[in-house]
Amino acid sequence: DIPSLQDVLADDFRIGAAIDARDIADPSAQLLGKHFNQITAENHMKPDAIQPTEGDFTFDAADELVDYAEANGMETYGHTILWHSQVPDWWFQYPEGHAEAGEPLGSSDEDRQIMLDRLEAHAGALAEHYGDRIWAWDVVNEVISDNNAEIHRHSRWYEIFEGPEYVSHAFRIAREQFDAVGATDVKLFINDYGTENPGKRDNLYNLVADMIADGVPVDGVGHQTHISLNTSIDHVEQSIEKFAGLGVLQSVTELDVAIGAPGEGEEFPQYEARLIEQGHYYRDLFAMYREHADQLESVTVWGLHDGRSWLRSLTEPRPLESPLPFSDQLRSKWAYWGIVD
Ligand code: XIL
């Protein structure tokens, strides 16, 4: 019997997996229950899943996961309250009954108030429904730009508010709503990818530092960590160290380590070599994470096994991308043994 990852990491941090309803049926559920002590809903808690039409909340799929987690002694990490993606169109349009119903919102005070009211209703419904059963929430996801000179992502949220103030509003509103139901311990995170990229990291750091200075209730930083064999582990580490200086909680929220699919005509041994290299990479990465265990609440892999990796269905499909510790056949890969090492 191979070691359970949650036992191996028991003194360090929780180990999580992003899942959806199909992963809590056997045989996947056996793998999940053995190795992981935290889950994130891969899609079931996103704005479009929770509130497909205004005022119409659907918690069924998300509830299945939270019930499963509780029945199996696992924690749940909430993902995500505000995002520019997987958010229904109605969110950025005038509401029914308005003279311009269905038309895109502008950026008047009235329009901003519509956005804030919607945020309050959405966060309020999540707080009411889940209370403290979910220990942390990504309040905002991916608000930093990939263009380091631009700093903030120019999303619909940003356009309507003509700046990044919506981020602070989101944290204050979420805090109010969770506190109102007595869920004062629920932790509020800002989550992004590319936090290992020094320029993007510094932009995120400055935003969080400014919010803390302004008394905005942000508790934690989520490092998505969609990386590859070429990513410098030193950069991943420097980001954790930098945010440690702010005294915020930190989690690795969406880890995967891409190795590239087998190239056309590429011989099997070359591909196998990359899987072994990935084992070394996971070993070195987790050795570093364990040195920073005091800083990390949890480390979550984005998918239970390679066959469930989102990288396989990106716009440029990578059919055989294999970024995770377990294979399509639910077998332990070198990456798994790297973590155990
Ligand atoms: C991805 C899911 O894995 C896919 O199933 C879905 O089609 C698109 O979203 N950053 C995030 C996650 O914050 O929510 C994304 O999840 C992956 C990138």
TrEMBL record:
Keyword Hydrolase: yes
Reactions that this protein is recorded to catalyse: Endohydrolysis of (1->4)-beta-D-xylosidic linkages in xylans
Top-level EC class as recorded in UniProt: hydrolase
Entry EC number(s): 3.2.1.8
Domain GH10 stretches: 1-341
Keyword tags: Carbohydrate metabolism, Glycosidase, Hydrolase, Membrane, Polysaccharide degradation, Signal, Transmembrane, Transmembrane helix
GO molecular-function term, one example from the UniProt record: endo-1,4-beta-xylanase activity
GO biological process terms, semicolon-separated: polysaccharide catabolic process
Record-stated family: Belongs to the glycosyl hydrolase 10 (cellulase F) family.
Descriptive protein name: Beta-xylanase
Taxonomic placement: Bacteria, Bacillati, Actinomycetota, Actinomycetes, Glycomycetales
